[in-house]
Specification:
By secondary structure, this protein is an all-alpha fold. The chain folds into 3 domains: 1-202, Growth Hormone, Chain: A, CATH 1.20.1250; 203-256; 261-480, MFS general substrate transporter like domains (Growth Hormone, Chain: A, Up-down Bundle). Helices cover 83% and strands 0% of the residues. It is built from 18 helices and no strands. It has helices at 2-11, 13-45, 49-52, 54-77, 79-98, 103-131, 134-165, 170-173, 175-189, 204-227, 232-254, 268-298, 303-310, 312-331, 333-352, 360-387, 394-428, 440-479.
Length: 480
């Protein structure tokens, strides 16, 4: 029976994939489309920049707190069910966002939207791993990575057009028809007979402790630069995060059916792949945060033109991602991840040497190299992670991937901003928390330091990947 079910899923896999890809497309499109509308939202809701940023950060924190929990639920009740109803809740949250008249209601609506997004993110990679055989999984995950790149790429220009022609509410309302179509397509095409393993009950204590850990850690990371890293609330929040994680670890070790089985981390290959995924998103978000300021403040490029230049990254990543997945299916994933990280490092180093005399060609070429390296890395690394766990843990593993992605984003934001202002303050001789007019040299110096530091972090991932490849070759030689 199980063999017949798998054969049926494999047979329809390429027809099911577009439905699954609507999930990451919707989630990434909504994430990137919002940033463009923040100034208009702030003006119309009569709030400042610091307050309106919670429209973005509340969404990010809520997804991070819930994605692992829904991954566990997906393994218990079925990944297809969680995935489908994620669209319903996401669409409901989008409707409420579009109807918001106050910042408080908008933030609550964004959290509801994040619940749906975390359901979608926690199950889409697991579904791909279920319906695709191992020799095609890299290609499918590569197309998923391309979809993420397309969603990221389309967000800023589409958001700008919609805000200009209609209003900021329209960027949320556009999700509703997409969500409804995705739900009904899912009901029709996703596997209804998905085999669920005997995974036991739900770990409520672990879920509560994990949410406390993520919310307190991410709030501190995202608020530290504004309030000051020595602020008592930031310090207390870090202490709560540490205590919650320690308690979570010991609860999970004793729990019969843990939300997160820490034995998964006994596999060195799994750990290295997860760490490298974290590094890749950390360094990319260093670029995402720093580069718009370089383009607009140093090069005096208009916001619209800067957005077009930054689209080079998702375009180059999106083009190479499915090719990378296809090659990894044929040659093996590890060597491709090595070259992906290597090219990413080269791109970061080259970006670090941009200055006031750089041409458009200099900028575009270096962004393209960075995007090429990231696109080369993501698909095979995801394939490695998903291939190292049993089928009854595919949901939670996809969630770990999504959580690591979000953690990389948050740490990248906090790391790059803190280091940038620290180096600017060091060079100028007093505390700096913004761009200094008339002193582009101060920003250029600090930007170079951030990019080279990010490249150094990336090199750690390269070394670990290389050691992993050498160890695998050594074992193969011993077997022969």
């Amino acid at each position: 029976m199980e063999h017949k079910l798998e054969h049926k899923l494999y047979e329809n896999r390429w027809h099911i994939l577009p439905v699954i890809l609507l999930g990451p497309l919707m989630a990434t499109l909504d994430s990137s489309i919002v940033n463009v509308a923040l100034p208009d939202m702030a003006q119309r809701l009569s709030v400042g920049i610091n307050t309106i940023q919670w429209v973005v950060t509340s969404y990010l924190i809520a997804i991070s707190a819930l994605v692992l929990i829904f991954g566990r639920i997906a393994d218990i009740i079925g990944k297809a069910v969680v995935f489908q109803y994620g669209f319903v809740i996401f669409s409901l949250g989008s409707l409420l966002c579009g109807l918001s008249k106050t910042i408080e209601f908008l933030i609550i609506s964004r959290i509801i939207q994040a619940v749906g997004a975390s359901m979608i993110m926690s199950s889409n990679q697991g579904l791909i791993a279920v319906i695709f055989p191992a020799d095609e999984r890299g290609r499918a995950l590569g197309l998923s990575a391309t979809t993420v790149a397309i969603g990221t790429m389309l967000g800023p220009p589409l958001g700008g057009i919609m805000v200009e022609i209609f209003n900021w509410e329209s960027i949320f309302l556009i999700n509703i028809p997409i969500g409804i179509v995705a739900f009904f397509l899912g009901r029709k095409m996703l596997p209804k007979e998905e085999k669920k393993e005997n995974t036991g009950g739900f770990d409520l204590k672990g879920a509560i402790l994990f949410m406390a850990f993520v919310v307190s850690l991410f709030w501190a990371m995202l608020s530290g630069e504004k309030l000051g890293w020595e602020n008592k609330y930031i310090i207390v929040s870090f202490i709560i995060a540490f205590a919650s994680f320690v308690a979570f670890y010991f609860v999970e070790r004793k729990e019969k059916n843990p939300m997160l089985d820490f034995s998964m981390f006994h596999n060195k290959l799994f750990n290295v792949s997860i760490f490298c995924a974290f590094v890749s998103f950390l360094v990319i978000f260093c670029y995402n945060i720093i580069h718009p300021f370089y383009l607009q403040y140093i090069m005096n490029i208009s916001p619209a033109r800067a957005g077009i230049l930054m689209m080079v990254f998702p375009i180059s990543a999106g083009i190479i991602a499915p090719i990378s997945g296809y090659i990894s299916d044929k040659l093996g994933s590890e060597i491709i991840t090595f070259f992906g990280l290597l090219i990413t490092t080269i791109g970061l180093v080259l970006l670090g040497f941009l200055n006031t005399n750089s041409t458009y060609m200099d900028i575009v070429t270096r962004i393209a190299i960075l995007g090429f390296g990231n696109g080369l890395f993501q698909s095979p690394n995801n394939a490695i992670v998903m291939s190292l766990v049993p089928k009854n843990k595919l949901g939670i593993t996809g969630s770990i991937n999504a959580l690591v992605r979000n953690m990389g984003m948050v740490f990248g934001i906090a790391f790059s901003v803190t280091l940038l202002y620290n180096r600017m303050s060091h060079l100028i001789g007093y505390s700096v928390v913004s761009f200094i007019p008339g002193r582009p040299d101060v920003f250029i110096y600090a930007m170079k330091f951030v990019y080279l530091s990010a490249a150094s972090i990336c090199i750690i991932g390269i070394i670990l990947t290389l050691l992993r490849i050498m160890e695998k070759r050594r074992r193969e030689l011993l077997i022969r």
